[in-house]
Specification:
heterodimer; A: mainly alpha; elongated; B: elongated
């Protein structure tokens, strides 16, 4: 899975894109871990996770990745709408 | 010139840097948005996938947040334009 669907030949630096993608995956992982730990922990009495906590974390990661996809779709949709509005406004001003 | 404090031969480089910053910022904002909306909308873990209620909540949360950001951006641009004097031509 890539955030970048392929840019123009004279587009941004590929090293920058690769580095950024890795940083963002790492950021996603860190946030997902922190969120699922705080949602799923039942106590701090034992260092080992109990069965409940384990299955909670499994489900939490599944849900989080799904949420990631949904939010990505919404962002794309809203950005397209905004771009269309901007174009429409510029078209009107041009006349 | 888009960046008055930068000399003419570096304008293109500055533009490229700015695009990089914008790309990075929008991805950072994406991750932050997922975390925020997930935390707000999902509390039960009976299954491995989102139910309809959670999905709707997340979609609305994301849309509202993005529209908020756009509106803030518009107002910010207006206020900046009002306070920064035009450079002499």
């Amino acid at each position: 899975m890539s955030w970048f669907g392929g840019g123009s030949p004279s587009g941004p630096d590929p090293m920058f894109l690769a580095r950024t993608e890795i940083e963002m995956y790492n950021d996603l992982f860190v946030k997902m871990s922190a969120t699922c730990i705080s949602k799923c922990r039942s106590n701090y009495k034992e260092p080992d996770m109990n069965i409940g906590e384990q299955s909670c974390v499994d489900r939490c990661t599944g849900k989080y990745m799904e949420a990631q996809e949904k939010v990505g779709d919404v962002m794309r949709k809203v950005n397209e709408q905004h771009a269309q509005q901007q174009q429409a406004m510029q078209g009107m001003q041009g006349r | 010139m888009a960046f008055p404090q930068v000399p003419a031969h570096q304008q293109a480089e500055m533009m490229a840097r700015m695009e990089e910053m914008q790309t990075k910022e929008s991805l950072r904002s994406y991750n932050m948005l997922v975390e925020r909306c997930f935390t707000h909308c999902v509390s039960a873990f009976r299954s491995k996938s989102l139910d309809a209620k959670e999905t709707t909540c997340i979609e609305r949360c994301a849309e509202k947040f993005m529209k908020n950001t756009q509106r803030v951006g518009q107002r910010f641009a207006e206020l900046q334009a009002a306070t920064v004097p035009m450079p002499p031509q």
